[in-house]
UniProtKB/TrEMBL annotation:
It comes from Phytophthora megakarya. This is Gag Polyprotein.
């Protein structure tokens, strides 16, 4: 994966491309390499927005209070 193929992207955007290639495989990287610079930025921004939403969702689920189970009491006959 060569940074010089994406000179118009910021370091942060290029890091997102590395993440995308790690998740989706090198086909995603090559697909981006053949896209126009505007399409690359659009796809990277969409991925970043999805990633932020996923992280927010997971953090919300981890921080949600968990109801403690009530101990089973003796049942009347």
């Amino acid at each position: 994966m060569d940074r010089s193929e994406f000179p118009h992207l910021t370091d942060s955007q290029f890091e997102s491309i590395r993440k995308m290639a790690g998740i989706f495989g090198m086909d995603a990287f090559w697909s981006l390499a053949t896209a126009t610079p505007a399409e690359q930025v659009e796809r990277v921004n969409a991925f970043d927005m999805y990633e932020r939403g996923l992280i927010k969702h997971v953090r919300g689920n981890l921080q949600a209070p968990v109801a403690e189970p009530k101990p089973a009491g003796a049942k009347p006959l």
